[in-house]
Amino acid sequence: MGRLLSALLLALCHVPLQLLAEEAQGRHQLAWGWEGGYVNLSGLSPRTDGALGKFRFQDEGLVASRGFFEYTGRITDTWSAHAAMEAYDDNVGDIADVTEAYLEWRPVPRSATRYRLKVGAFYPRISLENTGLGWSSPYTLNSSTINTWVAEELRTFGAELSASRRPLRFGGAHAFSATVAVFTGNDPAGATLAWQGWAIHDRQLRLRDKWPLPPLPAFSPGNVFELQAPLHEPFRDVDGRLGYTVNLEWRYKRRLLVRAMHYDNRADPLALDDGQYGWATRFRHIGVQASLPGDIGLLAQWMSGSTAMGPIVNARNAVDLDFGAAYLLVTRSFDDHRVTARYDHFYVDDYDPTPMDNNAEDGHAWTASYQCAFNERVSLAAEWVRIDSYRPAYRYLGLPANAIEEQRQLMLRMRF
User: Fold this and answer.
1) Mean predicted confidence (pLDDT) in 179-204
2) 125, pLDDT greater than 90
3) Which residue in 349, 352, 350, 271 sits closest to 318, CA to CA?
4) In angstroms, rounded to a whole number, what is the distance separating the alpha carbons of residues 86 and 98?
5) What does residue 192 show for φ and ψ, rounded to 5 degrees?
6) Based on the number of CB atoms within 10 Å of its own CB, is 22 exposed (0-12), middle (13-18) or buried (19 or more)?
7) Which positions ≥6 away from 380 have C-beta within 8 Å?
8) How far apart, in whole angstroms, are the C-alpha atoms of residue 386 and residue 343?
9) pLDDT of 336 strictly over 80
10) Is a pLDDT exceeding 60 seen at residue 49?
11) Which phi and psi angles does 392 have, rounded to 5°?
12) Higher model confidence: residue 228 or residue 19?
């Protein structure tokens, strides 16, 4: 019944529709909504192969894009529950499934240090863009390359403990926090960067989704390992090891936020479970958010890391990559209007000796976005994105290594 209802709602969304309801009475708050059905006019040149395109949509037309349901409820004075569900009509998994589900504990402060504990499945503390309801961005329709990958492959399945403090000797202007998380699963994270590359879109992988990867050349060097299954499951535990993240933050009033993070899933690159390999993935991340003169907002994130899978062949894993990405975003609101511009750069360096498996990539992207809120319930957004990329693996499928892709998107959003 739930699947049928979701399908009917998405099918009827010939205009974008979002329903938001908040029940403030009692001790529970319920926020729910269907956000989707937006006009997506996209022109992709010169490549239009849907399996390899870096956008979510490869064709022009009217698209029923997304629905979401988000719940937040207070259990006690210090415990609350949170769950988020996304709905997509793209034949990947069930129409509706969960993206986050966790409990949060905020004890009554007994000193200047405040603590917070999250237990469950949730996004790691990375994105500075995706701060809206349903992990959406208030700045653009499509996430940056960094946060697109976070939505595709990263989730914390475990516990996260944060401690924050605002020292009085600084007059309360500065705030410092440290966060440590321990998680299981997420062992196959890294395969998407290797065999698909960086992307720009708004699709979030749900916890049970199995993501189709692009076609891969049929090779098996020395017959020492088999290719990964064509359906990717980035949230699977394949080796029983625990991964961890460490996050440090500094805030200065409401003007500046600096965030630094280290991620390591500690996956065994030789582990294999039901066609899913362990990918030893680790990276460093730095993010900056600042308020500039003229009411201009600035966001910047940088990520650099490595991922490896398979046995050692000529002193390297069968797949052995370094990867990195960065973006700079500037935004300005004018009453009910907002304009945003973003520049992305991304790369993958391939170091393994495996023949016919060059996963190197280099590229950049430009994004320009405009949003207008007619009132609290109706808004309009228009966005243009251009991606220039070079990926030698495209030649394996008879495609040029250089690709230029553009997308123009218009979305009308109605809120209730």
Assistant:
1) 94
2) yes
3) 352
4) 6
5) -65, -40
6) exposed
7) 371, 372, 374, 410, 411, 412, 413
8) 10
9) yes
10) no
11) -60, -30
12) 228
Closest-CA residue to 152 (of 103, 200, 115, 185): 200
Rg (CA), the chain: 22
Q: Which two tokens stand for residue 396?
A: 């394996």
Q: What is the DSSP string of 49-85?
A: -TTT-SSS--S-EEE---EEEEEEEESSSSEEEEEEE
Which two structure tokens, joined as six digits, stand for 49? 């192969």
Which two three-digit tokens encode residue 301? 């994130």
Q: With 0-12 CB in 10 A as exposed, 13-18 as middle and 19+ as buried, what is 295?
A: exposed
Residue 37 clears pLDDT 90, i.e. is over it: no
35 vs 160: CA distance, rounded Å:
29
Neighbours of 45 (CB within 10 A): 9
Dihedral Cα 42, 6, 18, 254, nearest 10 deg: -90
Q: In the Cβ-directed half-sphere of 242, how many Cα atoms lie within 13 Å?
A: 9
Region at 188 (left for phi over 0; alpha for psi -120 to 50; beta for the rest): alpha
